[in-house]
Each structure stands twice: as structure tokens, then as C-alpha cells.
Amino acid sequence: LITHAKKGALHNRREVMKKIRDKDVVHTLFAEIAPHFADREGGYTRIIKVENRKGDNAPMAVIELVREKTVVSEADRARRAAAAQAAAAPVEAPAEEAAAEAPVAEVEAAGEGIADAQTAEAEAEATEDEAKS
Asked: How many CB atoms neighbour CB 4 within 10 A?
């Protein structure tokens, strides 16, 4: 209904009148509420669940219009803009360089892993020898 009121055309007013039969309420919607939400792209209501009703234990909720403006910090905007630019500009690296670097990195990683394993085994043996003595 608020989206129809934001558009403000006669057709939209008649569409809202199909659902809300009171002309005063429709006038208030178009004249006061819609201008407040003119710069908002949806998310007009807040739904807060409350305790179930006594007696029949029916689920209850409070539905209210969101009056505060949406606040998006400059950091969030900058982060989103940077992510969009990074996604738009693909990394252009020659395939030959990438292929040449990959085996070298694997060999270095394997060598480091073997050295770490040997060091760990030597420390474990030394600890066992001290415990036996």
C-alpha cells in the first residue's frame, strides 16, 4: 500500500481504495505517510513478536512503521564499492607465468613440511629419552 501511495497516481489511489474503504485513511496515507518513505526502497514495517495471548495461546506480534532513516556508514559503502570493482576487473595474468610458479610453490611447501615433521620427531624422541632417564 505504501508503494502505491509513493507513486501517487489516481490509479494507485483507486487500488488502495479497494483495500481501505475509508477516504480519510487513504488521504493520510498519500499525504503524510508516503512522503516520509519516498527515499526508502522497501522495508516499511517492523514486526516484533511478543508473548502468546492468554486464554487461547495465539501467537501475537506488534507491527509498526519504521520511522527512522536507514543509515549506511561510509565504510560499508566503500567496502561494497571496492568489492564491486574487484569483481568487475578480472585479474589478467599470463597463463605461462601462473603455470611456472605453481610447481615451484608446491616443491617449497613440500620441503618445509618435511623439515617441520623431522624437527617434531626429533623433539619427541628427546623428550622420551629425558623421561626414561
From this structure: 20
